[in-house]
Amino acid sequence: MKYVIVLTDGAGDYPIDALGGKTPLEVAKMPNINKFAANGTLCLVKTVGEGLKPGSDVANLSVMGYNPYEYYTGRSPLEAASIGVELSETQTAFRANTVTLSDEENYEDKTMLDYSAGEITTEESRELILAVKEALFGGDIDLFPGVSYRHLFTWDNAPDKFTLTPPHDISDRKIKDYLPDNERILDLMKKSEAVLKAHPVNKKRIAEGKNPATSIWVWGEGKKPLLTSFEEKFGVKGAVVSAVDLIKGIGILAKMKSIDVEGVTGNLHTNFDGKAKAAADALLKDNYDLVYVHLEAPDECGHQGDMEGKIKSLELIDEKIVGYIKNELDKANEDYCFMILPDHFTPIAIKTHSAENVPCAMYRKGDCNNTGYTYSEKCADAHGEYVEIGHELMKKFIDMGK
Asked: Which residues 6+ apart lie within 8 Å of 86 measured at CB?
C-alpha cells in the first residue's frame, strides 16, 4: 500500500462576496479531489488544539501525527533542522524574515508593507542576510540564510520569554504595537535597516520596480525539539516534499527523507511538476511507503489577499500534483490511499491564519461510496466525520490502507 498526503497549506477560507458567497475551494475546478471526497471519506479535523496558535508549525505537527502539546517547542528549531543547524541545549532559535517596511524616518512609525520583501529570491536574500550577519552578528548570536525571505537567527543563553509577532499577521499595519519586547532583538532589527538600505541587491530591486528588503523581522522563537521516528511511530517509511524549511525540518527530525526539488519556491510559481514527479519517484522507485507533499501556494495567496491566485493554486494542485501522482500509481498497478487537507485556514479577508476546523478527504483506491459530496469547508462541516484530536488523524489514515 502506498500513502499520499497532499497538504494544501492555508487552503481553508471564508465565503467571499465576489465569488457569490462561496469559498475558493467551492469554485476551484478540482475533479480529482472532488472525486476523492465523493467516493471516499470526508472529515472535519481540528488541527489546532485549544490554547495553541494556528501556525503551520503546530498544525503540520498535528497532521503528521505528533501531539503539539507534547512535541512543540517553537517554530524556528524545526526550520533549523532543515538547513542543517544543530542547536545546542542552551541555544534559542528564531525566524528572521526579510521584510519591506515603509520609509518613515522613525522605525516605530513604519508600516508592514510586505512580510516577504516581494517574495525575494533565495539568491538575493542570501547576499543580504550575509551582509547583515557580517555587520551585526557574532559571539553569542548568529544568523543563517534560508529559503527566499525565511532565515534563522540563534542566540545562546537567551532570556526565557519573548513577545514576538509574525510579520504576516500585521500586513498593512503600523508596526509600533507589534515590536519585540526585547531591546537587543529590536536593536538588531533597527540596525539591519541601515545595512540593507545601502546594499546593491536592494538598489537593483528598486530599479526593477520590486519591493526591497528593508529590515529583518525576528519572531517564532523556540528550543531544540525531539521527535519520535515516524517509521517507529506508524510502521511506514515516509518522505517529505516541500519548499518550506519548516516542513522539511519536521520531516528531518522525524527521520523521514526530505526530498529537494529544483525550482520550488513555496508560492504560485513553484515547480509543481517537479514536486509531483519527486513524490511519485519516492513511492515507485525509492520504495517509500508514504509521501507528504506540502504546497505553500494557497497560504501565500491568502496572506497577499490574492483570491484569483488562491483559486488557481488549488486547480494546479489538483491537476499537477494529485492527478499526476494518481495516474503514476495507477499505471504501476499500485494500491494507494490519498489524504487531502489544509493545515489551517488563511482567509483572503483577514490575510492571516485562523483556527477553524479543516476539511479533509481520504480515499482508498477502489472506493465508490458515491455520496455526491464535494470537497469544501461547508460540505465537510455538514457531512464530515469529526476528528476532534488532530494528531490522531494520521493513524486513522494509515489504518485505512490495512
From this structure: 80
* Nine-digit cell string for 223: 528550543
Q: Give me the CATH number covering residue 265.
A: 3.40.720.10
Element (H, E) at 186: helix 183-197
* Residues shown for the chain: 402
- Domain finish residue from 204, 222, 240: 222
Tell me whether residue 77 is in a domain.
no
In a domain, 82, yes or no: no
How far from chain centre, in Å, is Cα 217?
Answer: 18
Q: Which domain holds residue 238?
A: 2-72+226-400
* 114 φψ region: left (φ > 0), alpha (ψ -120 to 50), beta (else): beta
Are 94 and 218 in contact by the 8 Å Cβ rule? The answer is yes
Contact 33, 322 (CB under 8 A): yes
Give the strand pairing for 2-8 and 290-295. Answer: parallel
Q: Give the separation between CA 385 and CA 45, rounded to whole angstroms.
A: 8
pTM: 0.85
Judgement on whether residues 122 and 183 belong to the same structural domain of the protein:
yes
Residues 216 and 115 in one domain: yes
d(CA 53, CA 165): 12
Residues 249 and 392 reside in one and the same domain:
yes
Structural domain count of the chain: 2
Mean pLDDT in consecutive groups of 10 residues from the start of the chain, 402 residues: 98 98 98 98 97 95 97 91 91 97 97 96 97 97 95 96 94 97 98 96 97 97 92 98 94 96 89 97 98 97 96 98 98 98 98 97 96 96 98 98 93
**Other CB atoms within 10 Å distance of the CB of residue 191:** 16
